[in-house]
TrEMBL record:
PANTHER family: TRANSMEMBRANE PROTEIN 68. GO terms for cellular component: membrane. Keywords: Membrane, Transmembrane, Transmembrane helix. This is TMM68 protein. The chain crosses the membrane at residues 40-72. Signal peptide: none annotated.
Length: 165
């Protein structure tokens, strides 16, 4: 760089944006060869990225559980008077939660539901395996509600009813 107040393109040779940013950071912090420190920081970030993903995904699921519960409590308080005069005020809450959980399933896991046309119109039994958390059931019911406006009841292990909230 030619001076403290001049831009990176003011000199006789043009430089890339990252080189310019490195020079600006060196001037601002007073540290020489800051590019070496930045490359080390990027390496550590790249090394620890899988751990960040491992802890972020369950955190997002737990936060969505609590946001869903909070949304239902607020919705219940808001519609207590309407409930006495209409047959089902929970339609809006179901639509909102189904949309939120379906979006989460599609974005984080690429969740898709195939073969819905094979589920009978009357009662039916859907058997599936779930892992450590019952999120796949939530994704299934949300997608089924969006596609066919049907509700699904669950027969589950005691663990599902011990999930906080």
């Amino acid at each position: 760089m030619t001076g403290g107040n001049e831009s990176c393109t003011a000199g006789p040779t043009s430089m890339s944006y990252l080189t310019c940013l490195t020079y600006i950071l060196e001037e601002w912090t007073g540290v020489k060869d800051i590019g070496d420190y930045l490359s080390y920081a990027f390496y550590v970030l790249w090394l620890l990225f899988p751990l960040v993903v491992v802890f972020v995904l369950p955190g997002v699921i737990v936060i969505l559980f609590y946001v869903s519960i909070l949304w239902l409590h607020i919705y219940k308080r808001k519609n207590e008077i309407k409930e006495a005069y209409s047959h089902d005020v929970w339609i809006g809450a179901r639509e909102m939660l189904a949309t939120i959980w379906d979006g989460h399933g599609r974005i984080w896991h690429g969740y898709e539901l195939h073969g819905v046309e094979n589920i009978p119109q009357g009662p039916g039994l859907v058997v599936f395996y779930h892992g450590a958390t019952p999120v796949d059931y939530i994704y299934f019911t949300a997608r089924l509600h969006i596609m066919q406006k049907r509700r699904c009841s669950v027969v589950a292990d005691h663990f599902v009813f011990r999930v906080p909230g």
